[in-house]
Amino acid sequence: MPAILPLERRAETEDRWLRLRLENVLPTLMRRDKVQMWVIVAGEYNEDPVIETMLPATWLHARRRTILVFFDPGAGKPIEKLALARYPVGDFQPSWNPDAQPDQWAELARIIAARNPSTIALNRSEDFPLADGLSATHYAAIVRAIGPAFAKRIVSPERLALGWLETRIPEEMATYPTISRISHAIIEEGFSERVITPGVTTSDDVVWWYRNRINQLGLDTWFQPSVAIQRADGGKFSVQEMGHRGDTIIMPGDMLHVDFGITYLGLNTDIQRLAYVLKPGETDAPKGLRDGMAVMNRVRAATITALKPGRTGNEVLAAARRQVEAEKIDGTIYSHPIGFHGHAAGAPIGAWESQAPAPHRGEYRVDPNTAWSIELNAQYNVPEWGGQKVRFMHEENGFLGADGTFRFLDGGQERFILIPRG
Known about the structure:
Elements lengths: L6 H26 L4 E7 L5 H4 L12 E7 L8 E5 L8 E2 L9 H12 L4 E2 L14 H16 L2 E2 L2 H9 L3 H21 L12 H14 L9 E5 L24 E6 L2 E2 L2 E2 L2 E7 L9 H20 L6 H14 L3 E4 L2 E2 L32 E13 L5 E13 L5 E3 L8 E3 L3
Helix pairs in contact: 3-4, 8-9
């Protein structure tokens, strides 16, 4: 288990990363998308997903109404970072004195008029919720305050918001593998005889052990873990019902599956792993199960090969599916970006319920310097289980670099976790 930082060191790290992102990522994205001014508004406990990633680490929520304004003066000058808020907001320049001007919206209108931007970006999107953080009330207030002439300059470049959320900086990527390693360590601890006593422990016991272990380590999670069991004559497997039979007792000969993630330093993991409970006299999972995992990893290889910057999510899916079908594999691909959110900003690649091209969202292009959750499954008939069709689930996190090269953060699963360990 890698070392886990105390809270004060975490806050220092997150604030340092934020400063680097504002200095390096923000100007590139605003100029790429030809946005001269970006206005982000959040109400307390109703935060825009973007502004949540821009607040100081000690701000667990926006305070009152918090307005951030970014302005590009051009000519290679630094981006202005202004905060209209009742309290200081990190390194943002305080730009509203409520005593002198009680009307926060009027002050925003004054700032806009003084800078006369050619475009005013607001976070609104029909297709991407993470780029749709501006409430209808706040939008109406902005339009009212700035007047019709400036309102004509409002744009909704969703790629700007998504780009901010999806782009990873080198400093984050130096640490992300450690976050993945912590996740793997917790998974392997849960899938061990320390936690599981065959014939006694239920799948739900393991789920709640994971939740308690995350809490004990001072970490958080963005979803409830699930533990599912497949076994010989185990009946039809359903992704939708996966992990809902929590009272099932774990027995020798079971194949276990966990879907698990943590939140640490503002970044998330989303990982699935497979384990096998040894029967007396066994030293490994049956060959049919091992062969099924190998087939699963062929779908993984096809997905990674297809994941290229500049392709749309639909194009990645189509290329990967061509390879999977050429190998006559019964596989399903549903990979997605990961980062500030578990199901993060960027291009979705398929869905577990559909392998058809996704309209609108599936046309978003894959960008470099982004993190990914390579999620998929393959179905394979296991001879030792009477030819039963078994579903082998995979999910592992990785990074797509500027040169188009993909690497896992902490390796992908190649063999079963065995219970008990040899």
